[in-house]
Automatic annotation (TrEMBL):
InterPro entries: WD40_rpt (IPR001680). Keywords: WD repeat. WD repeats lie at residues 258-289. It comes from the Eukaryota. Signal peptide: none annotated. This is Uncharacterized protein. GO terms for cellular component: cytosolic [4Fe-4S] assembly targeting complex. GO terms for biological process: iron-sulfur cluster assembly.
Length: 482
């Protein structure tokens, strides 16, 4: 920390800290302060500022918690033993009772009644002590929370990790279903319900229309801008995928049209090398398209879903695909190394179907069940080579002004690796969730649009969130403020 001592005529950087509980002097000070006999009555509590972190490495708080955890484990063991005794001891089954004579049965019933009374007494004593323990813990937590209200360390940590996207610009637009950006986020592609595609310049949160394209016959459901080439692709309700290329005149023209789907194309994923397109459709099929000599062909058709495909995600290594549909299942496919064929690796049955999922990394993906206020987190278990549900994260659902509406498609989950932010639209709310180094999911901001008809995307650098909703009927641009 290269900061000068607050005593003006000292003019040197602070070097020391004081941890004495009774000290009333400034706790961060320089060598000249020390020479002036500040803190001389408790020098044992004066430490070098650079050693601050080491002072707490070997504190006995961790030992106390270890002792408490051992005691809790022992209490759990005793409780299990007590439970087994109460349920299993001195109990006879129906067959054994039928072999008793009257006197034996009388004695057994008396013993049983007495045992029940003892059990109630024991449970009452335990319950009272448990309530005392709960009250003690609540009091301790309240004391800590009260003490932390003015804790600058907690405040600083909160400020450092604060995430907030503020509205900086908006403009009237017809319904936009999908948005995509090029590598540096200076070109924005928007796919419209009207079947139009518009290409915008996107500079510092301002949009300027460059070109309107009307080649699709029906609504645009998904768009993706290539990162390595001046090309973008679009999927439409008209069952086609079109690859567009920018010419020397800066205008975008049709390069190739893919027509093998038998239903609307709902989602598109492209690999990093941009030689593979993965598409999901209303026809319940996933198609793998590969490029050879700059020409795209269908390499493989994946079956298995029982309803129209709602979302696809490709993992970081790009050897696994997760997909969901309007059916309570998540399918995981893996590419075989030699044949390059994708095969079913795992089927996860879920209680509620969902429209959105996303890989966070190779070992973790998230899934948003329809109309639920929890985000599901799945993690890979190396022992059985399966993904398993490990946690549920509370997420906002928002307030819908139009009743009995579904969540709507076309706003896929998006993980911004640079900022470690997961963008998760759920009903009427867009939840911005920070994934920290400990694997915790912390909702930092929830934007309520008061309608489930909201569509959008975040720029790949995490600086801007762009949405369109059917209440404001505006293209809204929000910028990250930290």
């Amino acid at each position: 920390m290269n900061q000068c001592c607050t005593i003006g005529d000292h003019g040197v950087n602070v070097e020391f800290i004081c941890l004495n509980q009774s000290c009333r002097d400034l706790r961060v000070f320089c060598f000249k302060c020390l020479q002036n006999e500040k803190h001389n009555l408790h020098m044992k509590d004066v430490h070098k500022l650079r050693d601050y972190g080491k002072l707490f490495e070997n504190n006995n708080q961790s030992n106390v918690f270890e002792d408490l955890e051992r005691n809790i484990d022992y209490v759990n063991t005793l409780f299990k033993w007590l439970k087994d005794e109460m349920f299993n001891s001195n109990s006879l089954n129906q067959e054994e009772i039928e072999y008793l004579n009257i006197e034996q049965l009388h004695d057994y019933i008396c013993s049983f009644i007495q045992m029940q009374s003892q059990k109630q007494s024991i449970l009452g004593i335990i319950q009272k002590n448990v309530e005392n323990l709960i009250q003690t813990l609540n009091n301790c937590i309240s004391d800590l929370e009260f003490s932390a209200m003015g804790n600058p360390g907690k405040k600083i940590k909160s400020e450092l990790s604060n995430i907030n996207y503020d509205l900086i610009n908006e403009s009237e637009e017809q319904q936009i279903n999908s948005i995509a950006f090029n590598l540096d986020s200076r070109i924005m592609i928007a796919g419209y319900e009207s079947s139009t595609i518009k290409v915008f310049d996107f500079i510092d949160g301002e949009v300027k229309l460059n070109q309107e394209i009307k080649l699709h016959k029906k609504s645009i459901y998904c768009v993706y801008h290539m990162k390595k080439t001046k090309e973008f692709i679009s999927g439409s309700c008209d069952k086609t995928i079109i690859i567009f290329q920018q010419g020397d005149d800066q205008q975008w023209n049709l390069k190739q049209q893919l027509e093998e789907h038998q239903g609307g194309v709902n989602c598109l994923v492209v690999n990093k090398d941009e030689d593979t397109i993965i598409s999901g459709s209303d026809d319940t099929l996933i198609k793998i398209w590969t490029k050879d000599n700059d020409y795209w062909t269908c390499h493989q058709t994946i079956i298995g879903h029982q309803h129209y495909i709602s979302c696809i995600s490709l993992n970081e290594t790009e050897n696994q695909i997760i997909s969901c549909s309007k059916h309570p299942q998540i399918l995981i496919h893996q590419q075989e190394i030699n044949s390059k064929v994708w095969v079913l690796l795992q089927t996860i049955n879920v209680s509620t179907w969902g429209r959105r999922l996303c890989f966070i990394n190779d070992a973790i993906f998230t899934f948003q069940p329809e109309r639920k206020e929890q985000l599901h987190v799945y993690e890979f278990n190396s022992k059985n080579n399966q993904f398993q549900l490990t946690k549920t994260i509370p997420v906002e659902i928002g307030t819908c002004r139009i009743k009995k509406r579904g969540c709507f498609w076309f706003f896929p989950q998006q993980f911004i690796k640079e900022k470690q932010i997961l963008v998760n639209k759920n009903e009427c709310s867009v939840n911005l969730i920070l994934v920290n180094q400990d694997g915790q999911f912390i909702t930092k901001q929830s934007i309520d649009y008061f309608t489930s008809g909201v569509f959008g995307r975040m720029t790949d650098d995490g600086q801007f969130l762009i949405t369109w909703d059917d209440i404001s009927r505006k293209l809204q641009i929000r910028q990250l403020k930290q």
